[in-house]
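Subject — a protein and its fold

Tokens — whole-number codes for backbone shape
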Amino acid sequence: MFPIGAADIFPCVRALIMAMPLWAIAALLFVFFSAASLGARHVVRRRSDAQACEEASEQAKSLLTGMTATFAFFVGFAINVTWGAVTAAQVAVEQQAAALHQMAWEISNITDRAESAALMDKLKIYAVAAAHDDGDHLAKGDAANLPSAGPFDGFEKALHAYVSGPKAQAWQVSALVSGASGLTSTSAGVAAVANRFVPRPLAILVMIVGVLASIVMGLTTVVDRRATLIYVWCVIPALSLTVVLALAYPFALRSGANLAPLRVVAEQIAAQ
């Protein structure tokens, strides 16, 4: 009655990942890969005789090196992609903070003190919203409904009304417009980075290769009475994918990126 498509599944998965602590994600992945490995081992041991098990074990051992190397390659690539997004997020925040500071400086130089104070008040509202209210939305990748969008629109309208009016001095208009343009582009840059995530095909491919490698590992132990190596192996893909997911959201607290530079500038502007 309520069909769920891929477009509905991925947002749900993302929300679940954000809600779970990293240790829980690692534990869940460990159980998942262990189940795949032990399941393959159980099926082969139950349906094959000793000779067939020996052959399956030898073939699996010959495949294991290639499978693990392939898994390591894809995990390394995924970590490189996600870490690049985290780095870009931090750079984007620093650029936005610099543009906000420049905009405040330009407004403080307006000769008409009443107009300067009015514009500074609107800039303060935007700065506080961007620094303290946008964080949760950015961490979730929801850059379309940022709390700072309304205050920024109000600031832009007020600035446009001033530079288009008779009180604006010609030598200030260019600097104010340039500052507003820089603030707009840097704000858009932060929103764009917030939408970055591991490409779905890559995420699916890493998971598939991890499952296949776990199955091959399980097959290598079909001739052994105990499957201790399976648990040792399953720790590796579980921790590897946990690292990828930890970096998957550039503005999540666990990724390392933060809005600290923006908060510092917002506090400086609020103190004026």
